[in-house]
Automatic annotation (TrEMBL):
<dbReference type="GO" id="GO:0016887">
    <property type="term" value="F:ATP hydrolysis activity"/>
</dbReference>
<dbReference type="InterPro" id="IPR017871">
    <property type="entry name" value="ABC_transporter-like_CS"/>
</dbReference>
<protein>
    <submittedName>
        <fullName>ABC-2 type transport system ATP-binding protein</fullName>
    </submittedName>
</protein>
<comment type="similarity">
    <text>Belongs to the ABC transporter superfamily.</text>
</comment>
<keyword id="KW-0067">ATP-binding</keyword>
<keyword id="KW-0547">Nucleotide-binding</keyword>
<feature type="region of interest" description="Disordered">
    <location>
        <begin position="1"/>
        <end position="25"/>
    </location>
</feature>
<keyword id="KW-0813">Transport</keyword>
<dbReference type="InterPro" id="IPR003593">
    <property type="entry name" value="AAA+_ATPase"/>
</dbReference>
<dbReference type="GO" id="GO:0005524">
    <property type="term" value="F:ATP binding"/>
</dbReference>
<feature type="domain" description="ABC transporter">
    <location>
        <begin position="27"/>
        <end position="258"/>
    </location>
</feature>
<dbReference type="Pfam" id="PF00005">
    <property type="entry name" value="ABC_tran"/>
</dbReference>
<dbReference type="InterPro" id="IPR027417">
    <property type="entry name" value="P-loop_NTPase"/>
</dbReference>
<dbReference type="InterPro" id="IPR003439">
    <property type="entry name" value="ABC_transporter-like_ATP-bd"/>
</dbReference>
Length: 326
């Protein structure tokens, strides 16, 4: 879908009044639910998107990420529950909220026989805040921002998947936004393109823009986001600051020893749970201190080459949360 163009067109249609938002949340849902016949795609989700945050909605394919985003943007009618965007009820007051929102949802959709620049000019034409000569300037700035200036004259049908993603992102950034919503923004991008997306998100965050992005790539969320929400089978498992979530996973000790079998036996004989991880032993520091682990190994005659304290990664925490819900 041409996410930004569709949103802007809807934004010009609604003139209903709604109170301005002065709260701490850029978006929120309460009891949000979507069913298709007997299938529940989203189950009573209460999602909070703090202003100024970069919130990653994390979950495997089919977890309800895109459906939740579509309901939040007023693109899909919920079965029950409510959604608010920038303080305005959705979809009732979409016209007041959506001009301040840029979105790339379910991949970009543009006219295949037009060039990248021509497609963006059409998107700019329905932006309420762009008029006349300002449109072309905004288009050129957006093309440069996503690295497509050199390909702006090429037909869209000749774009690679990564270039199409870049053009969709450019459409979402035609004007300054209070909130930018990105659904799988690194889909189809090579490593260099992924780094560019990270940089753009970092720039938006530094400027005070709230960013809501969905992804099934744990490493991307951990590298990009300040907050995280985890969805599985349509249910919200957890949400909050990324640092707090990582700290809740506890710390561990990775130990390189002379003999892994002897080291594991020595630790287990002393009631210390351990497992082999690659070439090292890993001990979760929940009921034991790091010096006690080292001392136990030394007393058993196991040589200790290196010991490094680590924090649980998002992958570990995600695996724990989803296993608990299985």
């Amino acid at each position: 879908m041409a996410g930004t163009a569709d949103l802007s067109e809807r934004g010009t249609a609604d003139t209903a009044s709604a109170p301005e938002d002065d709260g701490a949340l850029a978006a929120r849902t309460r009891g949000l639910r979507k069913t298709y016949g007997r299938t529940t795609a989203v189950a009573d989700v209460d999602l909070d998107v703090p202003r100024g945050a970069v919130l990653g909605v994390l979950g495997p394919n089919g977890s309800g990420k895109t459906t939740t985003i579509r309901m939040l943007l007023g693109l899909t009618q919920p079965t029950s529950g409510s959604a608010e965007l920038l303080g305005h009820a959705m979809p009732e007051h979409a016209g007041r909220a959506l001009p301040r929102v840029g979105a790339l949802v379910e991949g970009p959709g543009f006219h295949p026989f037009l060039s990248g620049r021509e497609n963006l000019l059409r998107c700019a034409a329905v932006e309420p805040e762009l008029a006349g000569a300002a449109r072309r300037g905004a288009v050129e700035e957006a093309l440069e921002r996503v690295g497509l200036t050199g390909a702006a004259r090429r037909g869209y049908r000749g774009y690679s998947l990564g270039m199409k993603q870049r053009l969709g992102l450019a459409a979402a950034l035609l004007t300054p936004r209070d909130l930018v919503v990105l659904d799988e923004p690194t889909n189809g991008l090579d490593p260099a393109g992924t780094r560019e997306i990270r940089r753009i998100i970092a720039d938006l965050h530094a400027a005070g823009t709230t960013v809501l992005l969905s992804s099934h790539l744990l490493a991307e969320v951990e590298a990009t986001c300040t907050h995280v929400a985890v969805l599985q089978r349509g249910s919200l498992l957890t949400q909050g600051e990324l640092t707090s979530l990582l700290e809740s996973g506890g710390t561990s000790l990775s130990v390189s020893v002379s003999d892994n079998s002897a080291g594991m036996a020595a630790l287990r004989d002393n009631g210390i749970t351990t497992r082999q991880e690659g070439e090292n032993l890993r001990v979760e520091l929940t009921d034991v201190e790091a010096p006690d682990v080292i001392a136990t190994l030394v007393r058993a005659g196991v040589g200790v080459h290196e010991a490094r304290r680590g924090r649980a990664g998002l992958e570990d925490i995600f695996a724990r949360l989803t296993e608990e819900e299985s």
